[in-house]
Design goal:
192 residues; alpha+beta; Aminopeptidase; seven-stranded mixed sheet; two-stranded antiparallel ribbon; 5 helices; 9 strands
Length: 192
């Protein structure tokens, strides 16, 4: 099946009506237990600052084909897999790009880039000057790192055990690793 042209793809801000479809697509692409109902509700609430929502979805009719989950600056706390002293931007002005996910049938159509652009616009309106992401270096062909670099993201530091903790403590099942996730995360900063 040939992917539809871009005029048929719609983009809208994340709402609770998208939660179930986001969980399904997220777990399909990133592995079982990547997202759940409690987690997506929390991420949705953290997407807002000053009544501005920085998270987006892409749809064709009722079919959800992609999403960008973005946590507003000041709504997240850097953890041990973050290196704020290397950002050169105050922590309270950095949003967090939780994930960008596109159905495999629609990759290469500009969906991910459009979702990122829309989130950046809203994050900027919220007061962010940059966004941080932990990029999955085990993505096929290292496409996630290449994509985020092409969008302007710069490598801050690699974190070999970022997703190991999720697989041990939260039941995350990596689509690449057979048991405990050993994938490396690249901490990347994208300045607006």
């Amino acid at each position: 099946m040939q992917p539809p042209n871009r005029q048929e793809i719609e983009f809208s801000q994340l709402s609770p009506s998208h939660f179930e479809r986001i969980i399904t697509l997220g777990n399909q692409v990133h592995g079982d237990n990547y997202l759940d109902a409690k987690g997506i509700e929390s991420l949705y609430k953290k997407s807002f600052k000053d009544d501005i929502n920085a998270s987006y979805v892409s749809l064709i009719g009722d079919k959800l084909i992609g999403f960008r989950l973005t946590i507003a600056a000041t709504k997240w706390t850097p953890d041990k897999w973050c290196t704020p002293e290397k950002w050169n931007i105050p922590e309270h002005q950095v949003c967090y790009f939780k994930c960008n996910t596109v159905d495999s049938a629609y990759r290469g159509e500009g969906v991910g880039s459009k979702l990122l652009q829309l989130s950046i616009q809203k994050a900027s309106q919220q007061g962010a000057l940059a966004g941080l992401a932990h990029i999955w270096l085990a993505s096929p062909g290292n496409s996630a790192f290449q994509y985020f670099s092409k969008c302007g993201g710069e490598l801050v530091k690699e974190h070999p055990e970022k997703w190991r903790a999720m697989s041990v403590h939260e039941g995350y099942c990596c689509p690449v690793c057979p048991d405990i996730c050993e994938c490396v995360a690249a901490e990347m900063l994208l300045k607006f």
